[in-house]
């Protein structure tokens, strides 16, 4: 199937028929980002590369306490705009009859405006908005520098949330203008605990610029609290068991801007005897044809076969009566090229485990039967 950009190549256009529109820097950057993602999508990150990163977080329980520091007062931010929407995918490569405005398209309306700014060593760091859905804290931020810092390949220390003893998450940063960058950070609680309120301490002492082999030291310290948005929890407990892999959708947590699916995977002994690891990814659509964009929150478990995961998806279409969850299973064996593990102790010490080199074996991909969820019950 051709994507939207391939289809446009086949259309004969008259450039004089177009009128220029005034757009913000953020909107210009968003168009560029979407175009770049479409061009790169056939070279997307290999799933197991992502899992290596996830494993470092999943099994590294962090209980370190970071010093509390109140932030400076809010200042004017040159790049006012909806950063949540900027990081939504918006129909990327999907046919026109499939609705998809991206995971974060409804987040702005329900988020808390933070507006804290810290300046240090020629770099201004601003936290724009934040929201907590009871499972995941999502933060948008802006970085402005006195010098060019490349395309935004930064490594920034994560916040500390004392209510979350085991955390997973993601961080995406993009250059939107000369010396200006925006980011979207998520931190999810890997335990099945819902706190009504979380306290975020984000003490940033250095920012590494990966593609420039550069580190900027400074003090950008933030502290704020978030109350959980209202959500409706539905117990599902429906499962599918095929090819030695059982996947169970346990519950949905539906908020005004998204929904979270908690699911569990179990693997039979026959599969364990052949493969070092099983990994399940859920995709979800509804009975109206909507395909829901989602973000994995990480998972935890007793080993690499029996794991609990959660995944956040965009807002449910109010007219939908069913969700259809499809489990995609990948079975693989460990090699030194596709797996690594770092354990972080309570003292903050990192312990890297090594794995023996094995001959490369292609992973096996499976698609299990759909799990249908009735939203009317």
Overview of this structure, please?
- The protein has about 375 residues and is mainly β.
- Helices cover about 10% and strands about 45% of the residues.
- The chain has 6 helices and 21 strands.
- The chain has helices at about 5-10, 25-40, 45-60, 85, 105-110, 270; strands at about 110-120, 125-130, 135-145, 155, 160, 165-175, 180-190, 195-210, 215-225, 230-240, 245-255, 260-265, 275-285, 290, 295-300, 305-315, 320-330, 340-345, 350-355, 365, 370-375.
- The chain has a 5-stranded antiparallel beta sheet.
- A hairpin with a 4-residue loop joins strand 13 and strand 14 (about 290).
- The longest helix has 16 residues, at about 25-40.
- The radius of gyration is 22 Å and the shape is globular.
- Mean pLDDT is about 80; it is low at about 1-10, about 40-80 and about 90-100.
């Amino acid at each position: 199937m051709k994507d939207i950009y391939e289809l446009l190549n086949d259309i004969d256009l008259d450039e004089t028929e177009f009128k220029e529109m005034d757009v913000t820097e953020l909107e210009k950057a968003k168009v560029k980002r979407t175009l770049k993602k479409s061009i790169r999508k056939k070279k997307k990150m290999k799933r197991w590369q992502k899992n290596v990163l996830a494993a470092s977080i999943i099994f590294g329980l962090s209980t370190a306490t970071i010093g509390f520091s109140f932030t400076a007062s809010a200042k004017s931010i040159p790049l006012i705009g909806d950063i949540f929407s900027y990081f939504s995918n918006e129909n990327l490569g999907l046919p026109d009859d499939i609705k998809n405005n991206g995971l974060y398209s409804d987040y702005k309306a329900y988020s808390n405006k933070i507006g804290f700014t810290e300046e240090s060593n020629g770099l201004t760091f601003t936290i724009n908005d934040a929201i907590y859905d009871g499972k995941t804290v999502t933060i948008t931020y802006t970085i402005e520098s006195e010098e060019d810092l490349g395309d935004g390949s930064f490594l920034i220390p994560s916040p500390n949330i004392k209510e979350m003893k085991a955390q997973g998450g993601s961080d995406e940063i993009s250059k939107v203008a000369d010396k200006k960058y925006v980011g979207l950070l998520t931190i999810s609680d890997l335990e099945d605990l819902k706190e009504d309120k979380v306290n975020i301490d984000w003490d940033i002492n250095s920012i590494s610029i990966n593609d420039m082999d550069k580190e900027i030291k400074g003090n950008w310290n933030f502290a704020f609290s978030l109350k959980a948005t209202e959500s409706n929890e539905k117990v599902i407990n429906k499962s599918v068991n095929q090819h030695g892999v059982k996947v169970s959708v346990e519950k949905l947590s539906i908020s005004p801007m998204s929904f979270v699916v908690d699911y569990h995977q179990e693997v039979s002994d026959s599969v364990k005897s052949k493969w070092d690891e099983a990994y399940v990814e859920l995709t979800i659509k509804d009975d109206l044809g909507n395909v829901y964009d989602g973000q994995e929150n990480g998972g935890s478990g007793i080993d690499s076969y029996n794991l609990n995961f959660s995944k956040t998806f965009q807002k449910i279409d109010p007219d939908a009566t069913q969700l259809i969850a499809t489990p995609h299973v990948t079975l693989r064996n460990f090699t030194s090229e596709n797996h690594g593990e770092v354990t972080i102790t309570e003292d903050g010490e990192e312990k890297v485990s090594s794995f023996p080199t094995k001959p490369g074996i292609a992973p096996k991909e499976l698609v299990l039967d759909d799990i249908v969820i009735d939203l009317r019950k």
